[in-house]
What does this fold into?
Amino acid sequence: MSPNGDKEMTMRMRRLLIPLFAFALVAAACGDDDDAGGDGGDGGDSRDTGRVVLMTAMEPEEVDAVQKVLDDLINSEVDYTAEVEAAGNFEEQLQIRAEGGTLDLAAVPQPGAVRQLAADGSIVALEDLGFDIDELEELFGEYFLSLGEYEGKHYGMPTNINLKSMVWYPKDDFDAAGYEVPETWDELIALSDQIVADGSSPWCVGFESEGATGWPATDWMEDLVLRTAGVEVYDQWVNHEIPFDDPAIKKAAEYFGEILFTDGYVLGGAAASADLAFGDAPGPMFQDPPGCWLHRQASFINAFFGNFAEGLEAGVDYDWFPLPPIDKDGTLFAGEFTVVGSDRPEVKDFLERFIDEAVQCAMGADEASSRISPNINVGPDCYANDILADASVVLTDALENDTGRFDASDMMPPEVNSQFWTGMIEYVRGGPSVLDKVLADIEAAWN
It folds into this structure.
């Protein structure tokens, strides 16, 4: 985030089986078409449609969970109706609505997309809406808030954060098999080899995500750049101060290839993973016996686990460990930035309520959403299970120690982000022999 915002949701970055939605919103009861949308804050927008729509790339289960929170804590208190709407081809629909002036709010997983919308004049600055930036920096941290900054103003409100450097495993079966959680990359490879020797596949991998197919593979790359090169090189890579085909980036891709292309490591083989929906990929972990044992994915993925078996208990049936360090260490995260396309009083009122501790805590308390709040006042006791609570603590520590970095592809220009997704799928399908071309093609997208 993606997801995505995604990539980076986001997106973060989560577009499996989401239906397409028409981009037209209900017209104002009073007024004409000239009143209908994001004017970049020039003079405001006085129309009142009676509803405020938050456009997202959420999964259906997450939409239902978040909508319930809005109904309980916002809609019961206001004279408008707040609605969450999932859009299947989120990036395309976001652009259509922003350009057409029919966007109320959108939870965008890519800081690069936020800045592009700001450059186009399609969204309203938080300053122009009346928000105090100093107060927001205290609430979310200067680094996170700065990612939605453009030409001295802030356009993205952090409303979700997720930890990405996580490897999930079926704890009960894992313990029964005598496996131990690895603390180094070499131990991770040794564990993978042992699982192969025991007649199973260590890794569950899936990269399909409709129009954003490939983003889970970019997450692997980003985690490995942090672990092989560190945060300074990571920042240079994000800002294009080194080329995409720099030896440091190629080294990370080769570590990724060690997982992808070692015989027996990936259930079904690496090439097949390009067509396997990312939300379905962890399913075989919950078979009896497990069809695979390790799945690297962000904190939101446990919201999918209920699709594979009933009564799963976090910390008992499944657990996670950090993707181990190699030469360096770091924590990869992503999140969502809510942008405003319509300067209306009820839109601002909704956003103020949406970032409030009560609403953020309530969303974290539901496993169906598995949302971690960027609001520092939302403590670990808000979350549905210890896994989410522990992830929230890891994120806070990483940001405080400057070892946390936002999803790289979500901070790159949209054209580069898209080519990064595409290139990783080419690598997954083509194998090590295509790596040099893949990296060169992504580098060319910068131009």
Notes: The first strand starts at residue 51 and ends at 56.
